[in-house]
Amino acid sequence: MQLSPTMQKYILHWGEMGTRWGVNRTVSQIHALLFLANRPLHAEEISETLSVARSNVSTSLKELQGWGLVKIQHLPQDRRDHFVAHQEVWDIFRTVLEERKRRELDPTLSVLRECSLEAENDPELEAATREKMDRVLVFLEMLMQAYADFKHLPPQTLQRFLKMGGKVAKLFGSDDAPAL
Description:
GO terms for molecular function: DNA binding; DNA-binding transcription factor activity. Helices cover 67% and strands 9% of the residues.
């Protein structure tokens, strides 16, 4: 597949973003390529286009499938697996958010809850330290409840909600709210 200079820039930046978020650069670049592609691509084509080892492409595609961001598509008269990325930006965002929550926040919440219970019987734990731990737990639980409240809203509703951000902040008296 021939990449335009703009596509190359986009894919390279997507890889950089991925590394900042703790995702392998190649995984992120393959996701960007499949997102931008207007047809399904097979692994060899991905490997050639990005100049990445075929084994690295296979591993990366498995990870992307595990995240639910890429799926296999079979084409008539071609026995190879072809791959496509989800194209709806809101679906991609929700998928990434849900996976990050499942892999990072859910285990953290479990440990924080255990620590909260154990803190009740820990005579060496200072009250101020316990209060700090509890504040983090309450914050994350509130954040996860907000996520649960909003995650099933249709994209159009979420877009309207996000566009209202400054207006809502001003309504609730934020000094940092932009003028209407």
